[in-house]
Amino acid sequence: MKRSPGFPGFPEGKQRATPVPNLFFSELLPTIDSLVELKITLYAFWALGRKEGRFRYLTREEMAADKDLLESLKGEGRQAQAALDDALERAVARGTLVRVVPRSGEPLGPLYFLNSPKGRAGVAAIEAGDWRPAGEGGAPIELAAERPNVFRLYEQNIGPLTPMIAETLRDAEETYPSAWIEDALRIAVENNVRKWRYVEAILEDWHTRGRDEREDLRDTEKARRRYVEGKFADFIEH
Questions:
Q1: All structural domains of the chain
Q2: pTM exceeds 0.70, yes or no
């Protein structure tokens, strides 16, 4: 992806074009509130359009090797590599890209497919062992069971991401186990309290008082009341 100091305008004659589905403009663009996510989304359309083969995918390594892309992702004091990871997480959480995570020991890192019929078919072919990326021999890539990331869980259960919420979620990932965040979000959904502060209150309670999973499993009604009474009641709309 080449850049120039000043864009001189499109030249005359036939130019190579990158197809972008109309749904991008009507469904995705209005919801994308992160510049790095927008850049990586458009980059994916461009880069995948230049690929050949039965199924087309991108790896993080090849995106990180594109110096022009990394340079464009810098900003607001963030390092380019961190911005790339943030952009990919957002694109996967939104459903624009589909990520395949090989098991440890595989030579390839995460693979990113466009969430299109062809991209989903590529993921299915890998899972079924019918196709191996890059035409390499040997056994097909085995997929690890990837836990939903906190960005995706938030958007699916609470609401749209904002830069402030994204930073809060990253802090939560560093503070609490992923399984705790997933379970706290599940409790919020079950109690119809779709607020991050409620989820955070549950996590803080588990961190402070300890989490007795055996008690929750033994008496589900008691466990349910625990998260709608007392200090949690302030989050419940009556």
A1: 22-135 (1.10.10), 150-235 (1.10.10)
A2: no
